[in-house]
Design brief:
- This protein is mostly beta strands.
- Helices cover 0% and strands 49% of the residues.
- It is built from no helices and 11 strands.
- Strands 2, 4, 5, 6, 9, 10 and 11 form a 7-stranded mixed beta sheet that branches. It has a 4-stranded antiparallel beta sheet with strand order 1-3-8-7, with no helix packed on it.
Length: 122
């Protein structure tokens, strides 16, 4: 699976962004999809994930109620809608895919996109 994330940019605190991640290659619908983020000097952090059917979602406590993950299997795309953004959300955001259940450890994810930078100014 090849993943291409986009949609990053600069936004003021309280604003919104939507990050799409387009998938290609092997059967995309078989994969759990997720979003992680990373800042310099820190480990990659789990943000959100969605099951292959879209029926199950899971969020980090830090984004719960503000971010929404969704997927459109007809378009082979997963989205991360980010609302009420805070300066601490500033990071490079990565989409990822794996076979199997949703897990939060980045090492358990098999495929990664190239990352897109989100900057939230105060």
């Amino acid at each position: 699976v090849q993943l291409q994330a986009s949609g990053g940019g600069m936004v003021q605190a309280g604003g919104s962004l939507r990050l799409p991640c387009a998938a290609s290659g092997r059967t995309y619908t078989n994969y759990v999809m997720g979003w992680f983020r990373q800042t310099p000097g820190k480990e990659r952090e789990f943000v959100a994930a969605i099951s292959w059917s879209g029926g199950s979602t899971y969020y980090a406590d830090s984004v719960k109620g503000r971010f929404t993950i969704s997927r459109d299997n007809a378009k082979n795309t997963v989205y991360l809608q980010m609302n009420s953004l805070k300066p601490e959300d500033t990071a490079v955001y990565y989409c990822a895919a794996r076979l199997g259940p949703i897990v939060v450890h980045s090492t358990a994810w098999n495929y990664w996109g190239q990352g897109t930078l989100v900057t939230v100014s105060s």
